[in-house]
Amino acid sequence: MIGVVLLILSWLLDGVGFVVRLLIVAAVVEEVTGNRLLAVALGTLAAWWPGLAAFSALAGVPGGAGLTRLELRARSPSHREQGIVDRTLAELLRPGMRGPSLWYVIDVPRAGAYVVGTTLYIERGLIWSSGFPALLAHALRHLHSLDGRLVLASRRLVFPGMLWVMAKVAANAASGARRVEYGRMMLVLLLALVAGGLGLFLLSPGWAWYWRRREYVADAYAAELGYGQTLAAVLAQQVIEDYTLLLLWGRMSPPSERRVDRLLGVREGADRS
């Protein structure tokens, strides 16, 4: 429920951007076509589009496999990967739980799994690791809650493709001098004013707080299935960051050591790995 409230507040705080998009698109369309009625119609659609797309994702309309796949540079699984993932999903899914509508592989050596909407993204390094069942169980908890839908809804508060642009600008800002960093962050906020997402960025601290707690919930679920020790061992060896959303302040994932501490303190069944 807290995530839904944050999404609504993020959308409402984008009210200025709503007006800006309406005026810019309407002005451009009228200049090009000379048709004021068409200009108002397209301007209104541009103004409302991020909100409509976001709340359709929250309502459960399948998604997360289109532009997100391109941005994450994901591909369809190979025959071997398909077999491993299908078998592991069959072992982990419980009655009443739904699996991903689609899943793709991100060709990197890292070992992470992320849920966007109803789509699962698995980094190639994870599939061939001993910690795969533990991290997949963690991801399935996100999938079986509002988490995946909230991630997709938050992404859709920004016009298609612009979140990727903003992420690149923000990444360059983090590697520059303080004055350059400040200037680039202001550029991200200016882009958000036009392309959507201003409220999402202004509420970044609240979103970071929310997502860190959801990570703990997903960790606890993996522990309940008997994979707590395995997940703790994986987290002790590497830092797994969720980069499916852009937050200007704060991180979506808690420090790995904090997660390890909690996992080792969770009462769980016999570890299966």
UniProtKB/TrEMBL annotation:
Please report the name of this protein according to its UniProt entry: Peptidase M48 domain-containing protein
Q: Which family does it belong to?
A: Belongs to the peptidase M48 family.
Q: Which domain of life is it from?
A: Bacteria
Asked whether the UniProt record includes rRNA-binding among its keywords, one would answer: no
Keyword annotations of the record: Hydrolase, Membrane, Metal-binding, Metalloprotease, Protease, Transmembrane, Transmembrane helix, Zinc
Q: Which InterPro entries match?
A: Peptidase_M48 (IPR001915)
UniProt cofactor note: Binds 1 zinc ion per subunit.
Q: Tell me the cofactors it needs.
A: Zn(2+)
Q: Which GO terms describe its biological process?
A: proteolysis
